[in-house]
Amino acid sequence: MGWRALADLLVVFHLAFVGFVIFGGFLAWKWPRAVFAHLPALAWGFWVELTGQICPLTAFEKHFRHLAGEAGYHGGFLHHYVLPILYPPGLTRPNQWLLAAALLVINVVAYRRILTQRKKHRSAIQPPKGL
Length: 131
Fold this sequence. Notes:
The protein is built from five helices and no strands. With 131 residues, the chain is an all-alpha fold. The protein has one domain. The termini are far apart.
């Protein structure tokens, strides 16, 4: 496999990972064990957005592109690939904080349903008090 193909494959994986970070809580509705993979991914994604850090996958992609003889790009994965698709032009740090907050809200909605269903399931199993 060539370096360019490896870099392109990494971009696809990175985009899938970003999607999992955003919407992985909803996967747990169907597959509860997804929580164990999603919560660390969510924490990582939230930290990256909140601090403005660049994900190591971006550095690997740039390295593979360099090995393939391609010019790299400036900024991170989100800035280069996702920003033009999802984010408005002129992304600022306060806007990134809003995106981090939106990430939390989306996942609070997902996990609230999971916790509510779990609570209902537990109360259905336990006999009423006093019997």
